[in-house]
Design a protein that fits this description.
Two copies of one chain form a homodimer.
Chain A: H1 8-26, E1 31-32, H2 34-41, H3 45-53, E2 65-66, H4 67-78, E3 84-89, H5 93-105, E4 109-116, E5 125-126, E6 129-133, H6 137-143, E7 148-151, H7 155-168, E8 172-175, E9 188-191, H8 194-203, H9 206-219
Parallel strand pairs in A: 3-4, 3-7, 4-6, 7-8, 8-9
Antiparallel strand pairs in A: 1-2, 5-6
Helix pairs in contact in A: 1-4, 2-3, 6-7
Chain A binds a DNA duplex (22 and 22 nucleotides) through α3.
Chain lengths: ~220, ~220
DNA sequence: AATTGTGAAGCATTTCACAGCT
DNA sequence: AGCTGTGAAATGCTTCACAATT
């Protein structure tokens, strides 16, 4: 048993708690209740308590959670306390945006290597990190103990790039390319497809509502109950 | 009853089906089975059939789905058949990347207006769309019948920008700012927080595993069963 | 013979309700 | 008195298994 059985959804909420806790701690506030956390994050107090309880009892009954202590604990749970190295593959606009984001704002997940195929970009720097050719990828990932890969390459190149990351020993990939990656079971893949996000948003718009109703109407005949 | 009760998760899969169907249709293949769709998308055949069945019976038993017909139906369900207009707020690197993505690749969700506070950017163009000042936002959203807002502004400006989008009559917002938006019930908000994605990925890395175990160990005392 | 469409079962996640600490 | 931690109930989503259809 590798991981106990903590909902993936809960893991995704931890960084949100972390951010609020750090902000709160920075404001010199020492204690926060699940109700206050709920107000700031938009999740329910019960859910927050349950999420935290998966990892132990971090609060004080009748009081709340110590902001500094809890933020440290969450950073630890996520593995951010020691700084995780990430490689960015694809230095287009999206990659550039991510690199600036990540390199500047947090030290917890740091982009320490950047790769691209474009000879014009190779040798240039983003926030102090030199862009290198794809040929260097596998070895660099190994040498720099890089655990996370961020893929912002065109869909056609995604699979090949992902395989190189895998060979370098990456354990998780954040894939922005609209392509299904086929990798071994040791690499955790998280897909973010911006086109999907935009297109699915359209559904929640009046543009769709009637259309959907119409489609259902067109085809429904003997559907009841 | 506004929406029947179709899982949000199912809606998010529709654009994936759409993409594969369009690719398949473009390759002159007329029929595709749920099993083939499953192979190309990574979802299970049953799930695909169930998702589609929410909206009616689009396939032919013993045969499969007509690629062209089904892609049209999905586009319709999502409301993409008539083209949805979107406004981009914040023309930084991420905004720029999204604009290029969206304006070039698909006509279904089109960014037809871009706003920013930076005087140096105002008046310049991204892919043929002129960047305008925030003061124009509300009216432009109304005039251009814009239904979707894309927020790529700093967290501190997100709430104010979101309110302007809301006042302009936007029905859905894709929010990249790490801030909880407080808006009325008529605006559907989808958050994408790239920092969260990166930080939660760290959990699935060996950097965390021991750390998490350690935390649990530290605090677990009378937890059994 | 093949593949869809779908009730029912199975799982996972969220919410409820309250006991347990401080 | 107040707020956490947690079994139990409720809800939501996915998988199963098979009848229906071409």
């Amino acid at each position: 048993m590798r991981k106990p059985k903590i909902p993936e959804a809960a893991i995704k909420r931890l960084p949100v708690y972390l951010r609020v806790l750090e902000e709160t701690a920075a404001a010199e506030i020492q204690i926060i209740s699940s109700a206050e956390l709920a107000d700031k994050t938009g999740f329910s107090p019960e859910q927050i308590r349950k999420d935290l309880a998966y990892f132990g009892a971090f609060g004080t009954r009748g009081v709340g959670y110590d902001t500094i202590l809890l933020s440290r604990r969450i950073a630890r749970i996520l593995g951010l306390h020691q700084g995780v190295h990430a490689a960015l593959v694809g230095a287009g606009h999206l990659g550039y945006a991510l690199a600036r984001y990540s390199i500047s704002r947090h030290k917890d997940v740091r982009i320490t290597a950047i790769f691209d195929t474009d000879p014009a970009k190779i040798g240039t720097e983003i926030m102090g990190v030199t862009i290198r050719p794809m040929a260097d990828l596998r070895q660099a990932v190994k040498d720099q103990n890089i655990k996370i890969g961020i893929l912002t390459v065109p869909a056609t190149e995604a699979q090949a790039a992902a395989e190189q990351l895998q060979e370098g020993g990456v354990e998780a990939i954040l894939n922005f390319a609209p392509a299904k990656l086929r990798l071994g079971p040791n690499v955790f893949v998280q897909n973010i497809d911006l086109t999907i996000e935009l297109q699915s948003l359209a559904y929640y718009t009046s543009a769709s509502e009637e259309a959907a109703a119409q489609v259902v109407e067109e085809t429904s005949s003997s559907i009841d109950s």
